[in-house]
Design brief:
CATH class of the largest domain: Alpha Beta
CATH topology of the largest domain: D-amino Acid Aminotransferase, Chain A, domain 1
Bound molecules: adenosine-5'-diphosphate, magnesium ion
Strand content: 25-35%
Largest sheet: 9 strands, antiparallel
Helix content: 25-40%
Shape: globular
Amino acid sequence: MEQPVIGILGGGQLGRMLVQKGLDFGLSFRIMDPDISAPCSVFNGFVQGSITHFDSVLAFGQDCHIITIEIENVNIEALQVLQQQGKKIYPQPEAISLIQDKRAQKTFYRNNNIPTADFVLTQNREEVSRHTAFLPAVHKLGREGYDGRGVQIIKTPADLHLAFDAPGVLEKFIPFEKEIAVIAARSAKGEVTTYPPVEMIFHPEKNLVEYLFAPARISPQTAREADALARNIIERLQLTGLLAVEMFVTAKGELLVNEMAPRPHNSGHHTIETHITSQFEQHLRAILGWPLGSTALIAPAAMINLLGEDGYSGPAQYKGLEQVLQQPGVHVHLYGKKNTKPFRKMGHVTVVDEDVARLHRKAEFVKQTLKVIT
Ligand SMILES: Nc1ncnc2c1ncn2[C@@H]1O[C@H](COP(=O)(O)OP(=O)(O)O)[C@@H](O)[C@H]1O
Ligand SMILES: [Mg+2]
């Protein structure tokens, strides 16, 4: 079978890990990112360019047979033209377009009876300020928010000035017990698989994942329901590729879908070491129309996002690397970003251990020991 050329819009760490896996399959890639020193800039096939501009995305796509993404904020109109030219665009432009906008996402959940936090759509800050009866709430930017930028908690009317002055969604604040995620995959042939739910632990202020545990410590019943929700959504969207679905688990054990992402996801990094098939391999299999791989868990895992230490900006240095590498089952992934800044995602560490208590201790050790400074 002749190997197609795969184009990736976005050249960050997700693209980098996707290409790393793709090399095992002998695949050729083109990757585009506006940052000349993006994590994918080390690969042949990397080009610098805007992924949000019509002309550059259209030109980029000409050399590719299949085009995929590693970030949602891409030019949809160009992808639609490329699709009309006969290119395969996975995930499909309509799905990316829906997910790009948290307003459209929330409306999709409501229209499809998918449980989600109650919400109202808002146009600007002034409109948000009229919803005092809806508080405590969370205001989210419709577009272009990521890693907690674009999410603002509004507990009382005194916080209303923090609302975004742009189209957004105001949703009920959910005092959840846990946040979990399920990554589903659907192949171009319609086959669907899911990974077991993982548990995400967020930085108290930054809304960024600090730790992740796999499998999630939830009841088998909750795990089954989470799995069914993710399958339901990927089937309804008829999406080809990966779909990560983030959910809240309430004290009553109820599930509410928070948001989704149509691409490899931070909550699936551990799959590289601890699942028979990693999320990156699964995404490639899905978009190539190949059989999907087993998603079985090999061993419990913890994943620690390696964030730039607060107070340090400039050329990155890694402190404590040797100490953490001395521990068995510690896998360090550095994304090759030259410069660090506070809370920038610089890498991640996956810890693998059969013994869950030891796993947690090692994860804590890694968190305390490995630091990105200048
Ligand atoms: N309705 C809500 N109630 C309580 N916490 C929320 C709510 N929505 C979001 N959060 C918190 O903010 C985090 C980031 O919000 P999310 O919508 O996932 O945005 P992002 O695109 O930044 O990941 C969530 O993971 C969760 O911890
Ligand atoms: Mg999120």
